[in-house]
Amino acid sequence: MAGTRRKWSVGLWLGGLAVVAVAAYWGWVQAWWDHPDLSAEQRIEHFNEAFADRPRRAVAARLDGGGMAILARSDIADVGASRCIRESECSEELIRTVRRSFGCTYVTVRFYCAYAVRTTDGKAGTAFAQISSNPGARKPLEVEQPSFQGAEEMSCKLGFGCKPAAGAEPGGQARAPARKDAEPSPAPSQDAAACKGIRAEIVGAGETCLDPSDPARRDFRDCNNGFCGPAMVALPKGRGMRGSSAADMARLSKDDPQADSFRTEMPQHEVTIGYQLAVGKFEVTFDEWDSCLADRGCTRRPEDPGNRERGTRPVMHVSWIEVRDEFLPWLNRKLGLSGASAYRLLTEAEWEYAARAGTSTKYAFGDIISTAQANFYGERPPKVGSFAPNGFGLHDMHGSVPEWVQDCYESGYDSAPMDGSAHSPENCSSRVHRGGAWNDVPVFVRSAHRGVGDPKDRNWKGFRVARTLVVR
């Protein structure tokens, strides 16, 4: 009888161990059972899922030419070979104690996948998708939102190398070359025939030969009594398209579920800049605003989030009213300018003409933009001039900080001026800002995209300056 009891005791003990073992490892076993390695067909299925019924409808990608990009479906011409790795981690523990945990009731499975892609403009690259199991979701596996940091981490995991793409830092931020300010204004030409560009009145230099078509002869600074204004670029006169066409809107609608909000960019129309416009080479910086503050022209010190480095980073958290009533009057007093040739904000038409720089694509650099070309989908703006300029010699027209312009906001361009002037009705409750921000996805940093805000709003906003040159 004792032997029988002993057998039962051993049996119960072994059975208990088996139950405990099943409880401890059931989550891992079920995870392997539910989510084995992805087949080639499943990889493509989940890649396609990234573009359907999701807020971003996009993937992060590393372009072979350098830099990270956010690619929408319409940006991708071809998808080639793919590679995935599988990782698992305990998400919900069976027993929780201060010192230890025992067993998993749920295990999260993640697939890190890379896809060889070719973009519609002929560039090769590698797109990344992170696909995870999620309890309670409609689908057993879901594609996560695109992330530059996640894509860089996946590059390492998938054996593409842990160094960022050429010209980029971890997280997709392009490496900042040394900023180049405008050279002092060229010496006045004594021979009118020797000037192959325009002869403009520059403060402190007098009548000066500038050539908007020559990168070596289009930059200048106004200087008076030892004070110099912002670096400026003389733009060529000409015509340019403003807004989005019906074809542009159809493409946006395929890529973005909120594309109806972009209809304020219509109808597309041609704008003529028939006067000699000069535009700030860079956005106005903290240093420049602080000079206004020190001289008592400005009354408030805008803060950079976290009190991080200020200096030659673009000033932010300034309102349209502060720019109009404080900074611009101070700048014009310092340089002795008034009237039609005084410093001012760009009009909305001038801004888009300057941003496009003679192009008709979504960005001045083409229909796809990367972190090697502009500051977007990142953590904060870098120093001004950290990226190559557009064709007119202007930096940071895409991303960085939203730039206030003169215009009063109107929904659509049905009555928009076509001569470069501002839309300025008597009663105006909202002003326009352009260019998008450092933390925006690409669709919001397009040349045609419009932002709107209360003129008293300071959140994240910055600006650049313009003036009309007097030409002899």
Give the arrangement of secondary structure elements.
Elements lengths: L1 H33 L5 H10 L8 E6 L4 E5 L3 E21 L4 E19 L4 E10 L7 E3 L4 H10 L40 E5 L3 E5 L8 E2 L2 E2 L2 E2 L3 E3 L3 E5 L3 H10 L13 E5 L3 E4 L5 H9 L25 H16 L8 E2 L2 H9 L46 E6 L22 E4 L15 E4 L11 E4 L4
Tell me what you see in this structure.
- The chain has 472 residues and is α+β, with helices and mostly antiparallel strands.
- It folds into 2 domains: 27-172, no CATH class; 192-468, paralog of FGE (formylglycine-generating enzyme), CATH 3.90.1580.10.
- The protein is built from 7 helices and 20 strands.
- It has helices at 2-34, 40-49, 148-157, 246-255, 286-294, 320-335, 348-356, and strands at residues 58-63, 68-72, 76-96, 101-119, 124-133, 141-143, 198-202, 206-210, 219-220, 223-224, 227-228, 232-234, 238-242, 269-273, 277-280, 344-345, 403-408, 431-434, 450-453, 465-468.
- Strands 1, 2, 3, 4, 5 and 6 form a 6-stranded antiparallel β-sheet that branches.
- A hairpin with a 2-residue loop joins strand 10 (223-224) and strand 11.
- The longest helix has 33 residues, at 2-34.
- It starts with a helix and ends with a strand.
Tally of DSSP β-strands? 20
* Secondary-structure element series: HHEEEEEEHEEEEEEEHEEHHEHEEEE
Shape: elongated
Helix proportion range: 10-25%
Q: Assign the CATH class of the largest domain.
A: Alpha Beta
What's the CATH architecture of the largest domain? Alpha-Beta Complex
Round the mean pLDDT to the nearest integer and report it: 86
Region (Disordered): 167-191
Pfam families: FGE-sulfatase
Transmembrane segments: 12-33
Organism: Reyranella soli
